[in-house]
Amino acid sequence: MIDCSAQVIYWRAAASIAWAVLLLPPFTAAFVLFSRFSLFHPIQTLSECLAFLTSASAIFSLILLSGVMVILGFLNLEYYTVVPTIACSKIELLGQLLHPRQLANSLICCIMGVIVAWCCAITTGSRYDTLGSIDTSQMCLNEYHLILLLGGAFVGLSHSLLGVIHNMNYVSFNTVQQYKYLCVKGSLTTVVKCSATQALYSVRSFIIVYFFFGYIPKAWILWTVSVHPLDSIAGLFNLSLVYHLWISASFLLSTWHFTLLLFRIYVTEVYNFPVQSSFTEDVQQCLPKVLSEKQPVILKFMALQDLALLSQHSPSRRCEVFSLSQPGGHPHNWNAISGECLSLLTELNQRLVSYHDSVATNGRAKSLSTASERKTSSETSGEIFILLPLTAPFTPDLDSPFTSPTLRRLTTPAEQCSPWSGTLQSPHVMRRGVKLWSTPTGEGGTNHHYFILYVTLGIKFTLEVRTFGLVLMSIWLRFKTWFGVKGFLAKRVLIMYLFNKLPEASSQALFADSQAHIWALEGLSCLVQASFSEDQFGVVQTTLPSILSCMLTLQEAVDRHFKLPHASSKPVRSSSSMEDSTHKTLRFALRATLKTAIYRITTTFRDHLKAVQLSPEHQKRLQQFLEYKE
């Protein structure tokens, strides 16, 4: 069963689809006028346009276009998000484009683009209305109509791909609240301008693609339908053809972008959640429950937006937040709201700390691992050269120039006056050697000589076994260094282009959902400020130390983040697309909101904050806010 709060999203999406369908006839009438307009016969053009708009073909085209608008509205509802997916590298972006869900979206957009292009061809009439034409008593292919259909498919595909690249499915909440009519009126000019500009680039790209690969669909149609080619186009740079391609693409993108605009406006409209309810069945729809329990992300954002607005503009609802439960006298509303806000801020702080630690650790670990590899390689390589002569038979050739000096010393009979000569310094061998080496020379001395050799080789064999693991590790490290995948791929320019991190992408991804933290900061700080005069029971005072500590800790983490490269550089906003670039500047908005929230509390309580139990570091930082030095 769908929650009543969640049903609001579906009703709003349905309302945006309905308005998109109702406003489709004006867009269609404008397209008919521009596609049939003649500068030398304006009155005749108007009469022809009026006659066409009342014809059966125009009504059928409107029905098809309305179906396309409904499908597009459902796609907006299915693919929208309030937390954008930011690709930190080209390979991640490529993975998003090739995702099966995105491939299905691209296929649907291609089919809808063909349908819209067919309606545009019927509307334009003349030589664009049919795929085949009769010439010299035989059916021939009308390439004008084919180019319009392929152009529609190409524009639909590019619209789907650009939607992933520019995060056009991202829905942001407006900072300034306006009526829906004013929002639509103010954005209509931007929609038409962006659509015309994007259509121009799409037509340019389509002409290039069709010039090289247009023979493939043309040959397939000629072979399938058994028609003859008709080379009636003077060239792809025919101005009339290019104009109709551009006007058709502009009409397609204008209607699709307008549907997206209506969806954004309706879904992000402010929704007032009740703070508390006397009925048990309505408790799940109250603001504390929506914030504290698991809900769709869009509902969480709407609840936090409502919290930020009520904390600033609704004294009566603030009193409900500060109220105590009856019976029992517990501040359940305040505990739930403040607890969820503090949990959000703590999660962001932990995320920032983990990111900074990973950046610092990666920088140090690389140098340490490199040094350890060199040290291990040098040590184990030295052991390898020492051990190699000892793997010979038990009676090595001591006169050979390749015999190591160590083996010569070990196999030479030790003098009684110097029983400790050689490289072996084990005390057990020393004690045992005093008794054995005191025997007289002769046949017993020869056996004694072989006994020493066997003991020595046994000990070195034990050392060989001990260092065998180090030898294998050295070989593996050398293999990894010489033939490692990372080093191999690093020499390829294309691979480096795909795997290199994009500037600012990591920072943008880190703050992708910071709109929720901004509302949490505004709601908490405004409620704390209002509690100075409105909190009759002092429920806020119990959590004031944890609120201040959380904010000061978060500010320290944010300030540390802005010292990293690319974190403080502001991106350039694009005005030639429907991209919502709000997520690119969320980190700057969060930093400003965080500082404002702390100042809002310090300017209200001032010297009373000295009685709040804080750590010495936080007290020192809070004193800077009290002295306006931050």
TrEMBL record:
Instruction: Name the membrane topology term.
Output: Multi-pass membrane protein
- What is an annotated GO biological process for this record, any one? protein transport
Instruction: Tell where it localizes.
Output: Nucleus membrane; Nucleus, Nuclear pore complex
Listed A to Z, the keywords are: Membrane, mRNA transport, Nuclear pore complex, Nucleus, Protein transport, Translocation, Transmembrane, Transmembrane helix, Transport
Where is it mostly found? nucleus
* Membrane-spanning residues: 17-37, 49-75, 103-123, 144-165, 207-230, 242-267
Q: Which is one Gene Ontology cellular component term of this protein?
A: nuclear pore transmembrane ring
Matches recorded under InterPro entries: Nucleoporin_prot_Ndc1/Nup
MF term (GO), any: protein-macromolecule adaptor activity
Record has Membrane as a keyword: yes
In terms of PANTHER family, this protein maps to:
NUCLEOPORIN NDC1 (PTHR13269)
Family statement drawn from the similarity comment of this UniProt entry:
Belongs to the NDC1 family.
**Role played:** Component of the nuclear pore complex (NPC), which plays a key role in de novo assembly and insertion of NPC in the nuclear envelope. Required for NPC and nuclear envelope assembly, possibly by forming a link between the nuclear envelope membrane and soluble nucleoporins, thereby anchoring the NPC in the membrane.
* Name of the protein in question: Nucleoporin NDC1
Q: Which organism is it from?
A: Takifugu rubripes
